Amino acid sequence: MHRGIYEAASGMLVQETHLDVITNNLANVDTPGYKRRISATADFSALLDRIEKVSEDGETKITTVLPADMPFKGREVIGSVALAAIFSEDVMDTFPGVVKTSENPLDIAIDGPGFFSLSDEEGNTYYTRAGNFTLDNNGNIVNPNGLMLQGEGGNLSVGNNAEAVEVNKAGQVIVKREGLEQEVIGRVAVFNFERPTYLRHMANNLLVPTEQSGEAENVENPKIWSGMLEASNVEVVTEMARMIEAQRIYEGASKALMTHDEQTSKLITSFSRG
User: Fold this and answer.
1) Rounded to whole angstroms, what are the CA distances from 259 to 4, 85, 252?
2) 41 and 72 part of one domain
């Protein structure tokens, strides 16, 4: 009886987390370059019984023991229902968003996979698909939060006497100064990861690598769209459908929990009378 209560309660907790992920996606539907996150669920027993085994070649391999084969001491597993459901992970959907024309010549978008690299004053590095950049008071190309866009040789800075700045398809930053010819001051750096879906979201639409995503790798000869901005890849209809589904599952688990609670109460009452 308690097994059903644990299963229903864990299901409710999982759906709460799913709703949090969906709500965050909907909140960023108008955020340039935002990549929606997709959540996944796993059986608790499958995660609990991951066994690390060292093979003859010295590599550690992980195997999963099925509930029916779990080595319970003096207990027998009845049925194949998992002991509980838990939130497994949420990953990033890297599908590109729609690219729209912008009036800002420093709005840029990546044609294909990859991410822009940003740096703060403390030297921390972040990654993003949002290409809405401007010039700060020192002539640095920065994002709306003041983080500096990275070129192949470091921060991209055009100085204080630039009449016009643009980025061509090869990612070169071209500056026009009064009385001088156009000058290429650097090239926008684009990076990619072995498994970009495992990049972790931070505040302000920033991404940081994780152990699962791997380290950043430079993309050679990236294609850049100048004067264009990539929109979020969040689809409102899809997210609303996922939200309704999560709410329905939550309600079903809640009813199951109440039913098991009532049955447990009746069972206790019956035995107490005997």
Assistant:
1) 9, 18, 11
2) yes
How do residues 130-150 score in pLDDT, each as one tens digit?
999 999 988 899 999 999 999
- Per the listing, tokens 């409102």 go with 236
Please indicate, yes or no, whether residues 211 and 113 belong to a single structural domain of this protein.
Answer: yes
What confidence tens digit (pLDDT) does each residue in 169-213 have? 999 999 988 877 888 999 999 999 999 999 999 999 999 999 999
- Residues in contact with 158: Cβ distance below 8 Å, sequence separation at least 6, in sequence order: 135, 139, 141, 165, 173, 175, 185
Q: Which domain holds residue 161?
A: 99-230
Our count of domains for the chain comes to 2
Indicate whether 129 and 59 sit together in one domain: no
> Model's pTM, two decimal places?
0.77
pLDDT (tens digit per residue) in 9-21: 877 888 888 899 9
Report d(CA 207, CA 209) in Å as an integer: 7
Under a CB-based contact definition with an 8 Å cutoff, are residues 189 and 172 in contact? no
- Give the max Cα distance, the chain: 102
